[in-house]
Write a structure and sequence with these properties.
By secondary structure, the protein is mainly beta. It contains 9 helices and 84 strands.
Amino acid sequence: MAQLWLSCFLLPALVVSVAANVAPKFLANMTSVILPEDLPVGAQAFWLVAEDQDNDPLTYGMSGPNAYFFAVTPKTGEVKLASALDYETLYTFKVTISVSDPYIQVQREMLVIVEDRNDNAPVFQNTAFSTSINETLPVGSVVFSVLAVDKDMGSAGMVVYSIEKVIPSTGDSEHLFRILANGSIVLNGSLSYNNKSAFYQLELKACDLGGMYHNTFTIQCSLPVFLSISVVDQPDLDPQFVREFYSASVAEDAAKGTSVLTVEAVDGDKGINDPVIYSISYSTRPGWFDIGADGVIRVNGSLDREQLLEADEEVQLQVTATETHLNIYGQEAKVSIWVTVRVMDVNDHKPEFYNCSLPACTFTPEEAQVNFTGYVDEHASPRIPIDDLTMVVYDPDKGSNGTFLLSLGGPDAEAFSVSPERAVGSASVQVLVRVSALVDYERQTAMAVQVVATDSVSQNFSVAMVTIHLRDINDHRPTFPQSLYVLTVPEHSATGSVVTDSIHATDPDTGAWGQITYSLLPGNGADLFQVDPVSGTVTVRNGELLDRESQAVYYLTLQATDGGNLSSSTTLQIHLLDINDNAPVVSGSYNIFVQEEEGNVSVTIQAHDNDEPGTNNSRLLFNLLPGPYSHNFSLDPDTGLLRNLGPLDREAIDPALEGRIVLTVLVSDCGEPVLGTKVNVTITVESSYNFTVKEEDPGVLVGVVKAWDADQTEANNRISFSLSGSGANYFMIRGLVLGAGWAEGYLRLPPDVSLDYETQPVFNLTVSAENPDPQGGETIVDVCVNVKDVNDNPPTLDVASLRGIRVAENGSQHGQVAVVVASDVDTSAQLEIQLVNILCTKAGVDVGSLCWGWFSVAANGSVYINQSKAIDYEACDLVTLVVRACDLATDPGFQAYSNNGSLLITIEDVNDNAPYFLPENKTFVIIPELVLPNREVASVRARDDDSGNNGVILFSILRVDFISKDGATIPFQGVFSIFTSSEADVFAGSIQPVTSLDSTLQGTYQVTVQARDRPSLGPFLEATTTLNLFTVDQSYRSRLQFSTPKEEVGANRQAINAALTQATRTTVYIVDIQDIDSAARARPHSYLDAYFVFPNGSALTLDELSVMIRNDQDSLTQLLQLGLVVLGSQESQESDLSKQLISVIIGLGVALLLVLVIMTMAFVCVRKSYNRKLQAMKAAKEARKTAAGVMPSAPAIPGTNMYNTERANPMLNLPNKDLGLEYLSPSNDLDSVSVNSLDDNSVDVDKNSQEIKEHRPPHTPPEPDPEPLSVVLLGRQAGASGQLEGPSYTNAGLDTTDL
């Protein structure tokens, strides 16, 4: 009670005190504040501002249940955020703010509005997503729907769905599903349980449209969720066999019920796996096989492989597998497959003989035969087949069961062989000559053999008899009984005289082959003799030329030629019988000087007779014919030695003869008739001096002369000597006084002078003897100095005898072929010819000692053929005999040999060598489009070692066969021709097509070429060879495109060819180089067409060419440097133009379509933008007309600016669907609290915000540009209080900045 009274007492005092102090008050705008929910804790939120008229210090505070969000600085009123704001939890709340001075505290409620920020990511409402769909679900069907919720408002709360990943992540599953804006997942492609996937997992993500968060535009996305989709299999596929191909084999004797193989099929719908039923729907051999429910194919009847020969021994079965149940279309689900059953052979046949030719044989019973005939030339070469024998052996069994052995039996089996000796199935049988000598028409005209075909397994056999008729051929040459006949004929026999008529050749051939013609081959003596061509009688052709003394022996070659131009020869050695047709020949002249009384005559008369030595025709007898002085001499009748019988007295000789005695000697032979020759011997008896001195002996004493003077005084009888006469200057004389009137004169040669017999054999000198008395007389005497011949000169060869000769090869000539003649000026010379060396050359090249034994040289100079058969022109065509003459009597110290001389013997060619083909390492390829008539496609080269016409070769084509790729042989005639040319000694044959070749033929031309020589005499010789000409069709033509023009490609052709050859290891045949048509020109400018052919005739395809070029980097680099840009075949290149045109047209169409779409979209966008701008302008105009505080009569839709009757917005006058506000509905959470900006009780947020912003730090970022529509609305007139009339809340969803 006391307290009550105290209060009553103090109350008036307190009232008086308060009335004296004015209370502080908050500013008018301190009623509400807007804060973003992402404002950081501790950041400045706002300021509490109050006024106090008393200017008392103020203290600020805050209270209430939500005051914990803030911390207030009491002295300043600064409010900082103490706890985080969350729009989604509490988007508006109230706090009580207070201000007090020292006396009064004032409180006031402040509304805190939390502004939404994009701080929440969308959240899926359910994360366990799974579903199952049928694989036949139509495209566009909804597979599943998902929902994600974002608590944020506006665009930050609008959710956009996306499919981030599809597992499995294959190309066809990437876009298999798509998701709509409402979260519905739609099938975007077809499903397949078996071919694609039976399960899919979709990774889904939801993102908002973005909003401001921490002053940054941010898009928030949810964590990914996964949707599992299981595809349910449907029976929409046919069954499938587990293997793509079935094949088996079964023996032809297999029993019924034998299992062959098992097929297996499964339901194509793996998730259903419907059972299948098997059946054989077709069979090439019905009834042979059946199939069970287990898929096992079994034998159902008897089998016979031989019935399937035309079907490659196979039975084709069509097996059908049918599912038990119908498919989703109500049809049977089934599949068929071909099964190949090969029937294996059993050895149930033996080989049989047929008279037919493969491959035309039908092996019918009518063709079966056991007797055959054929023909063959006798002595045919080994391996030559019997003609006209069409024998085929056939065993229908297969493999080893059809393998048979062929052998020969019968009486003449030794002479023949059979080919093949082993074969399988069928074979053409040839009986071949084995031993040519046994196939002799002259022994038997027909021969018989048995051909035995034996089964190699069962040993069953068949026998066929072959009768072989021999054709007589010219297989025997004419033969002479002897290879050499020695004949004689008298020399100078009369023309026509028979030398021999008993030499005959024989030829066992019959008919024309055995008719013999005789002839003499050219050679030494062939012009002196002749032969009758029919009888073979050899006679003298020209008897006058038969002179034994010129040539004693002739070697002739007698040739016998039969009607088939085969020949042989024998040698006729014809010796000429000597007749006494030559008189003795006296050598030299005989002039003898002898001193009277003292001198003696002793001289041998030299004579010889050219008739045959050792006969009476050449035996000489000497006889001194009677004469005036013959009785003073004697003559040996056998030796011809002439001697005087006593001293000779000059005075006894008739003075008229001047001391000369002439004797006549008769030299005669002993032949019949006796022939003789007379020779005179002149003997001069001299009273003068005769001295003899050897030649080549300087300073020698010649002789001594004596003189006597009858005077008795020494002064008058003193004698001196002097010389005169021709050649006196070669001598000197020196006198010697003997006393009593005698003196001697010594005649000698000066020390530096010698005499030469060959220059002057006799010197006639005059020696004068006189005394000193001028009145005294003188006397003279003749001195004859005879120079005695010394054998001091070498012999010389007669150049004429060394003229070259020609000798034919291979036994064509015999005997003497030349005579080398030598001479010597010395009288005592004994000459012989010596062979120094033999040089053998072929075409100027030394071939060694090959020809050393061919020729010999006798001492008398005769050159003979030693080895006539060995002379071979092809080995050596020139023999040089190096000879010299030797004087056997040459005195010592002098040269006994002549200079060497060469006798050239040219070997003449005989046609004894056949032509032969030179090996060619070439492959001949025919490209039909390149081959033109009369252009070379192949060539051969050949040589003939003979010379002249014997070595001239002429080519011809004997046969042309075409071997197709399937092995068939087609004969051709007139397709090719061959032209012969030569260079040096090599002949070339150019093979050229006569007409254009068929380009459809694929295979090989086999061309048989013959080379034949053209001898002047005798038979020709020949050789053959076969060429393979491979054909390459146009499918192997490849095209290479270059970036350079064709002129540059042509200039680089050699380099391109080399690079392609290196890369492909083929022969490159360039067909064409052309520019690419400008209408189709892109990067390439030209192309090159070519073929690439291997040595075996195969060619590269374009793909193979591309691989090989890419594998050789060096060649590829070089080709790229040469301009290569594209590899393409001809066909692809021909279609390039059309493809490029189509591509260009399609491209232009697509571009035009894109332009139209872009223009249409641009037009629509511009039009829509224009309409929106126009509507915005109208809304602005209407907004300006609206009075502040005027509310429309119609009720408003809570939480929006939309009216429910006219459905018009008071700001834009637009339907709500144009503003994108469809998400605003009565059920929206925003309806719980109205934020209607048109409410008169709304806080002027804008103004407060501006005031708060004024207190922000200067580094606050600048505000964005004002939204245009807000500026228009703010332009209306303000009230008197300065506060805007109407709304001050800006709807962030209505932004016209972009307009």
